[in-house]
Amino acid sequence: MASSLEDRDSLFKFVVQDGNGVKGIVDMGLSKVPQPYIQPQEERIDKKNASICAQAPIDLSKLDGPNHEQVAQQIARACETLGFFQVVNHGVPVELLESLKDAAHTFFRQPSQKRAVYREGVSPSPLVNFRTSFAPKKEKALEWKDFISMVYTNDAEALEQWPKECNEVALEYLRTSMKMVRKLLEVLFKNLGVTPDESELDAIIGVKMVNMNFYPTCPNPELTVGVGRHSDVGALTILLQDGIGGLYVRVEEDIPDVGKKGEWMEIPPVPGALVINVGDTLQILSNGRYKSAEHRVRTTSSKSRVSIPIFTMPKPTVKIGPLPQLVEKEGSRFRELLFQDYMNNFSSNAHDGKKSLDFARAI
Questions:
Q1: Grouped pLDDT means (10 residues each) for the chain, 363 residues
Q2: DSSP state, 31?
Q3: Whole-angstrom Cα distance, residue 263 to residue 266?
Q4: Are 146 and 21 contacting, i.e. CB atoms less than 8 angstroms apart?
Q5: How would you class 301 by CB atoms within 10 Å of its CB: exposed for 0-12, middle for 13-18, buried for 19 or more?
Q6: What digits encode the pLDDT tens for the residues 158-182?
Q7: What is the C-alpha separation between 317 and 50, in angstroms, rounded?
Q8: What is the pLDDT of residues 125-150, one digit of tens each?
Q9: Cα separation, 17 vs 146, whole angstroms
């Protein structure tokens, strides 16, 4: 296999179709990155030209005290500007977060055939999918990432069908995080002058998915990306980073005391913190008030990195569009459409910044 790593068809079969992933080629011993993973110059991440986001994490415990309004405004401002923020005292036990990172490493440390059981087309469960890169058939250069996706339906099916190496800890992570998600959405809707009822919140976050991302060590990190430029399609994403770092967000407009338009900023790992980012669904619902964040991930040559996001999004049959209360005052910047149609458009293309949002813009 080593002699054919430069041949895209042979590499594609080994990495994608056979389910060995990037880790499979790294485990063979690499001295250089195979050609199919080398990114065009304009897509590479120059660590030296990026700044560090210096915004302090938001203490969510203060939402329940006399400083509620001040903290709510911090949350709203973060969603209106950068689209990314970090939170502490979020209700998810720190010990659980550490166990979650350990479980991710345990899963990806397995022999490739154990991971490949869950690859697309052969997985024993429709809820579990092991993949590598994002859209390998569409990408000009592949992304240096393997991941497993676990869709939530109910507790019993999660415990039965999610991989045993991580099912219990991933389910507890989801359970405890969703309390925080609902609280954040209530704050954000109130800031828009809207009070959603339980059924409306349920519609926005009707689908929940836990991913475990694995970025193997890379011999030439300056030539690759772990994840290319994109925004998330859902409402809110909750992300656990490990201590290695490598998450970058693009500043969409000048933000005083934060960053300049077009600048890339690293979201540094903070012990015990979770990263929150706005997805396209929330940008559409808010009629553009909240900004989904364009972000990407670099690779590293020192250690393998893991991150564990929870994606919350509408059910496929739900229609998404700007909230009527906002349209009355401002007109509509986005059209109403089925979330399934939006998701299909996103999934059928390689990562390309926030281009997927154009699909929903009002004509």
A1: 70 92 92 93 88 94 95 97 97 97 97 94 95 86 96 98 98 97 96 91 95 97 95 97 95 88 94 97 97 95 95 96 94 94 87 86 80
A2: S
A3: 10
A4: yes
A5: exposed
A6: 999 999 999 999 999 999 999 999 9
A7: 40
A8: 999 999 998 888 888 899 999 999 99
A9: 13
d(CA 259, CA 172): 36
- C-alpha to C-alpha distances, 165 to 1, 107, 160, nearest whole angstrom: 29, 6, 12
One-letter amino acid of 221: P
Residue with the two structure tokens 């790593």 = 5
Euclidean distance between CA atoms 308 and 7, whole angstroms: 31
pTM: 0.95
44: Cβ contacts below 8 Å, ≥ 6 apart? 222, 223, 224, 225
Q: Take residue 271 and report the two structure tokens written for it.
A: 């012990």
For the chain, give the number of residues: 363
Residue 347 in tokens: 């999934």
> In this structure, what token pair is assigned to residue 203?
């519609």
Q: How far apart are CA 359 and CA 346, in angstroms?
A: 9
